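Table S2 (continued). Query chain:
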Amino acid sequence: MSSLVLHLQVIQIYLYFMHYEDGFNMKILVSVIWILDTLHISFGECLVYITECMINRGLVCHILYYYLITNYGVPTSLDYIIWSLPVRVPIFLPDTF
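Corresponding output:
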């Protein structure tokens, strides 16, 4: 959907530059806003995905470090749930389906 809107924006920008005689500063402003919007549409979802991956990996590393390194050979540590496990499960469980 966002790429459709981006294509409509390109047509609108083209028509603006061809048919309107606004000043140079206004055309620069329109160009900068269009470039920033294009970058936002292009890379916005990618940045969200990268951030989610980094959070997920950090939580998994914390869980593994706690159970496998800090409490190695301590079976009673399995009686307690570390804080990062209940944080990770509700956030990333929908991604598995």
